[in-house]
Amino acid sequence: MTENSPIISVQNLSIGYEDNAIMEKLSFEIEKGDIFIIMGGSGCGKSTLLRTMTGLLPAIEGKVLIDGVDVVTASEEEKKNLTMQYGILYQSGALFSSMSLFENVALPLQQYTSYTAKEIQKIVEFKLALVGLAGFEKFYPSELSGGMKKRAGLARALALDPKIVYFDEPSAGLDPVSSKRLDDLILEINKSLGTTIIVVTHELPSIFAIGKNSIFLDNTIKTFSAKGNPKELLKNPPNERVLAFLTRGVLNETRTK
Amino acid sequence: MEVESLQVVSDKDDDKVTVLLSGDLTDNFSVPSKYIFESLKGKNQLILKNNGITNWSQQSVITLYAHLKYLSEHIDVKLQDLPEGMARLLLLALQVPSKKSESQQSEENFLERLGTKGIFIFQRFKYGSVFFKQIFASWWHQLTGQAVYRKKDFWLALEDCGPRAIGIVSLISFLVGLILAFVGALQLKTFGAQIYVANLVTIGMMRIMGAIMTGIIMAGRTGASYAATIGTMQVNEELDALQTMGIAKHDFLVLPRMNSILLSMPILVLISDLMGIFGGGCICVFLWDIPLGEYIRYATSAFSLDNFLVGIFHGVVFGFIIAACGCYFGINCGRNADSVGKATTNSVVFAIVWMIIVTGIITLICEGLGI
């Protein structure tokens, strides 16, 4: 596989709940090593797309191919193999509150690898150090700030050295400094590990800071209405909704004059 | 037409209607809806014009908006020379069309509602049976060594629903035995058969009351806790994290909880039985002056292994129901705080209802078997 070959291929994907499609016939590809942003307004279906791409929600129709294996129709065995290929950082961090940070990060290693307890300890300590949480192994999620929880969640997502890491609204609820720190961390992981990063967000500073490629989900037409580098899209917006989104503008929908 | 500070001007040859606003709009300002709607028949434009407004309030804007939000969906609405604040508020409110609610879009008739409810109940049964199957699949995974769960979780759950529950179960069972003996003795006294209160309490507690009381306490205490804990995990996306790690949530979450409650229930029922009989003894000895030795003799004679085992069996089944309801409602909880509350309530209500239904079924089976 070459550096620029697609690692994820979304083909004719319709997403939603039961038969109520939020987005229809989405087709796009994400290249290996990319930082791909899925952006759009609140409630447009960004998180639903992410949940469908990771197999948490069934697709109404279509395919999500990761290295040629369809997440939508994968068998249990295939799903298990796919699971090892990607990590997810959830909006809230989704750390298991009854477990310490060490136990949280060690869980996927215990589940999927045959490392000894000592090896697991070393790996966990390293992953936590990568995200700036060295020495926090014995801490519980309730003892951490929002930003630290997200970084710990990222350490867990990176535990198995996945090829892909999904981020669901990584900056949500963070102050600008913590948000910037997380963005820098995403860039660093992408550069140093070559991990393909997929970020669902509507935070403009993050979009412009980290995004190499992006799609803009447009709920008025139930598909994406723009694709490309966010900075390029800002220069040449394909439609006024994209422009309004990227410039925090307000569309003139007034019916009164 | 003129209504206090509002005047409607309409020209037959023109396709617009002008509403002139004047004077103090804070003083009982109202809009003659019917007349305006009639004036607008066949017209395309409504102009709201300032004709000397001296005073206005947010209330007058609310009154105007109530009409304009509907009219603006059908015709062009123009605001002309209105006071700046008033015009701004109206423009802001009318900027985005109001969303039609589901009920406005489609009004369901009785049969449709009945059908929808029927499908909902059928789906609930379907989900319930799938969950039931998954519990047995998890046990199979455990037997075959495939289940992924933390032993620590099992011991923590066992501690929570075992030793930590003994206090409340003992207290309630003692009080139930006390009440049973008091009420029973009151009736038996009329026949001079007060001493048989020992039989009443022993058989009652051993056969069913011990198990029922333990079941109800555990449903409110442990079942609710299961639903709340797992429901909160759902809200915090922890269940998603488990799923995307390829860890079966039924193995990881349900197994330790189910196994611990199944182990602890028989012991709790036994403690409940003994505490109930002890409570009955206290009433007999201290209130009805029955010698302790007599009470123990009658209670021992009333003891039957069948009754005891039926009670223990009830306890195990109740344990299964409590853990199943708690975990089911927790796993199927929505993603907000309100849903956790609902999941907790549902787990307790459904556990108690199913315990009563199952008690009826077991009683009928025992009757048929002559136990």
What does this structure look like?
The complex is a heterodimer of chains A (257) and B (371). By secondary structure, chain A is an alpha/beta fold. Chain A has 9 helices and 10 strands. Chain A has a 6-stranded mixed β-sheet, with helices on both faces. A 4-stranded antiparallel β-sheet of chain A has the order 2-1-4-5, covered by helices on one side. Chain A starts with 5 loop residues before the first strand and ends in an 11-residue tail after the last helix. The model of chain A is unreliable at 253-257 (pLDDT under 50). Helix content of chain B is 71%, strand content 9%. In chain B, strands 1-2-3-4-5 form a 5-stranded mixed β-sheet, with no helix packed on it. In chain B, strand 4 (45-55), helix 2 and strand 5 (76-80) form a beta-alpha-beta unit.
Strand content of chain A: 15-25%
Tell me roughly what share of residues is in helical segments of chain B. Answer: over 70%
Shape of chain B: elongated
Elements of chain B, N to C (H/E):
EEEHEHEHHHHHHHHHHH
Strand order of the largest sheet of chain A: 6-7-8-3-9-10
Beta-strand percentage range of chain B:
5-15%
N-to-C span of chain A: 57 Å
Largest sheet of chain B: 5 strands, mixed
Mean pLDDT of chain A: 88
Question: Rg of chain B to the nearest angstrom?
Answer: 35 Å
Hey, which two chains have the biggest interface? A-B, 28 and 27 residues
Structural class of chain A: alpha/beta
Enumerate how many helices of chain B there are, as a single number. 13
Summarize the structure.
Chain A has 257 residues and is α/β, with parallel strands linked by helices. Chain A has helices at 46-53, 76-83, 101-112, 117-130, 146-157, 176-193, 204-210, 230-235, 240-246, and strands spanning 6-17, 20-31, 35-40, 61-66, 69-70, 86-89, 164-168, 196-200, 213-218, 223-228.
Which features characterize this protein?
heterodimer; A: 257 residues; alpha/beta; six-stranded mixed sheet; four-stranded antiparallel sheet; 9 helices; disordered C terminus; B: 371 residues; five-stranded mixed sheet; 13 helices; 71% helix
